[in-house]
Write a structure and sequence with these properties.
The structure holds two protein chains of two kinds. By secondary structure, chain A is α/β, with parallel strands linked by helices. Chain A contains nine helices and 13 strands. In chain A, the strands form three sheets. A six-stranded mixed sheet of chain A has the order 5-6-7-3-8-9, with helices on both faces. In chain A, strands 11-12-10-13 form a four-stranded antiparallel sheet, sandwiched between helices. The longest helix of chain B has 33 residues. The chains are: A alpha/beta, B mainly alpha.
Chain lengths: 335, 245
């Protein structure tokens, strides 16, 4: 069946131009987690977690387990239920049904949250407070916080320590917001779309921070609708759509699950073709995404389409992701 | 520093950086003092003292209803508020900090009333009465703090502003804050004992003059505190930040 789905180049999925890694000179935060982690420890868990907002089912019987030492990417379009799941895990909201656990306890119990680090939304920093004050405020909640100077230095905010957060640039605010997740030397850092709205350089600075933390044994659960971000950072991908877990596997496996291929060709006019999940036309070429490339080629031949320059290639995670989430699209809500 | 003090400090920092917010809650009682008390009861020592007590009560009520009702509702709209709820602290330090900061602002907001009373009227209290009055401010803040919290935690900010304004005037007039202790119109005399403002002002008068508080009013104040505490507690527990349907 042919659908007019968001096209591959659709900028909802913000592709970022690749950046030469060797040219990267930003600060690399080195914020070791407080406690040595035992690999395999369950740090966060959702068990058949369901959350409704009125009539809207935002999360539908979701199972998720995050083990110590993992770097898990939660991937899905806006409104898929990523934020709702993270909100349940950090104790902001209660599940309507099912269970969530943080370090074996109820996330709504403050003691369960002692070893997590969460990032506020960039727009949520109190505008009248100074950068140093915001860090001090958060640090006051933890027994052994990272010293203010050290933290700000690692996130490149030393010069802004006396600035009111309302006067910071978007990138600086975002860096401060992410820095706050690391103040308390957490074992598990939960980042909800940490790099939304950042330029490439700032994004890579934050990626390095996350990688450095993970390399030191820290555990990371991050959500993103930037596919590139999840591909670049995460080892394990959990794809969420319409409040359900659609896939939970390695980056490679998620790509493999759907087995989507890109069939591209030059043709003037195409008849309706079965099995095509997305279509894009660029520079005279037509790109068709399909789960069954062989059948598509047979169909093209049977339909006597006058095509040339046929190419069949594997897809990026982005394309795989489109294919998984394309199947059913009931009304969802952004939370 | 205990966490409650940390929260109080940052609450005050945020407020002080926009000083007009402090000015707002101090303005109305001070203006009422200048326009109604000074010209009409300024020379009468007893009348001016009662009127000052009433204006102090008025200041306590307006400062608390607005800073909690509107302040809490606005905070709930900000993404910073849910973030603070992910920090490893229960609601107690945050609430205690908020109330400490609120008390500081309440005392600040009545300074103009006290200064105007001392300079512009014949109102006089002894040192002991002054201190008793100052302590009473903290006591009568309780029902209005709870009222403000109940409004702030149960309504979105735009609704909270309207509701705070709507309940504020009937409480002030109905409780007899804008009339003398004995010369209120009949309707107000009938209604007043059942409003929390009346019990509050009776306590304030008892602290600063030789007034003997009306028992019905004081008992009703206790009832109000229990009811408002229950509503505020319920609203707080059901709050998960702003809701959308």
């Amino acid at each position: 069946m042919r659908r007019n789905l968001p096209e591959i180049g659709d900028n909802r999925y913000h592709r970022h131009p690749p950046v030469a890694r060797s040219g990267y000179t930003g600060a690399v935060p080195d914020i070791a987690p407080a406690t040595a982690t035992i690999p395999g420890d369950v740090l966060a868990r959702a068990d058949q977690a369901t959350r409704r907002y009125g009539d809207v089912l935002a999360l539908d019987r979701v199972d998720l387990t995050v083990h110590a030492g993992e770097l898990v990417g939660l991937l899905g379009p806006n409104g898929a239920g990523k934020s709702t799941l993270l909100n349940l895990l950090v104790g902001l909201r209660r599940p309507t049904a099912g269970q969530v656990e943080l370090f074996g306890g109820d996330p709504r119990d403050p003691a369960s949250r002692r070893l997590i680090g969460v990032t506020p939304q960039e727009t949520g920093l109190p505008g009248t407070l100074r950068v140093g004050e915001v860090v001090d405020f958060v640090a006051a909640h933890f027994p052994d916080p990272v010293p203010r100077g050290e933290l700000l230095d690692r996130f490149g905010l030393t010069e802004q320590v006396r600035r009111q957060t309302g006067g910071l640039s978007g990138g600086q605010r975002r860096r401060l917001a992410v820095a706050l997740a690391f103040v308390g030397r957490p074992r598990l850092v939960i980042l909800d779309e940490p790099t939304t709205g950042l330029d490439v350089e700032a994004r890579h600075t934050l990626w390095e921070a996350v990688r450095g933390f993970h390399a030191d044994g820290g555990t990371v659960l991050l959500s993103s609708h930037y596919l590139e971000e999840v591909e670049a950072l995460a080892h394990r991908v959990v794809v969420i759509g319409h409040g359900r877990v659609l896939a939970d596997d390695t980056v490679d496996a998620v790509r493999g699950i759907v087995g989507v291929r890109r069939v591209s060709l030059v043709a003037d006019d195409l008849p309706p073709l079965p099995g095509v999940v997305a279509t894009e036309r660029t520079e005279g070429r037509t790109h068709l995404l399909t789960t069954d490339a062989d059948q598509l080629v047979r169909d093209l031949v049977t339909a006597r389409v006058a095509f040339r320059d046929l190419e069949v290639r594997p897809t990026s995670l982005e394309e795989a992701f489109l294919a998984i989430t394309a199947d059913d699209r009931p009304a969802t809500t952004t939370v | 520093m205990p966490l409650a003090l940390v929260h109080a400090r940052y609450q005050l920092l945020e407020i002080v950086r926009i000083p007009v917010a402090v000015f707002g809650s101090a303005f109305f009682p001070a203006a009422a003092m200048l326009f109604f008390v000074v010209p009409f009861a300024g020379d009468d020592a007893a009348g001016a003292t009662y009127a000052t007590g009433a204006m102090v009560t008025f200041a306590v009520m307006s400062a608390n209803i607005f800073q909690y009702g509107v302040g809490v509702a606005e905070d709930r709209d900000q993404p910073w508020n849910p973030y603070t709820r992910t920090l490893p602290a229960g609601p107690a330090p945050r609430l205690a900090g908020r109330i400490l900061a609120g008390l500081v602002l309440t005392y600040l907001s009545m300074l103009p009333v006290v200064v105007i009373a001392a300079v512009g009227t014949a109102a006089r209290v002894t040192a002991v009465q002054f201190l008793l009055g100052a302590a009473t401010v903290a006591v009568i803040s309780v029902p209005f703090t709870l009222l403000g919290l109940a409004v702030g935690y149960s309504l979105p900010s735009k609704a909270a502003i309207v509701v705070a304004q709507i309940i504020f005037f009937p409480l002030a007039f109905g409780g007899g804050l804008l009339s003398g202790p004995d010369d209120a119109p009949g309707l107000i005399k009938a209604v007043a004992p059942f409003l929390p403002t009346r019990g509050a002002v009776e306590l304030m008068w008892a602290a600063t003059t030789d007034w003997r508080p009306d028992q019905v009013s004081v008992v009703m104040l206790g009832v109000w505190i229990v009811v408002l505490a229950a509503i505020a507690g319920w609203a707080y527990r059901r709050d998960e930040g702003r809701r959308f349907t």
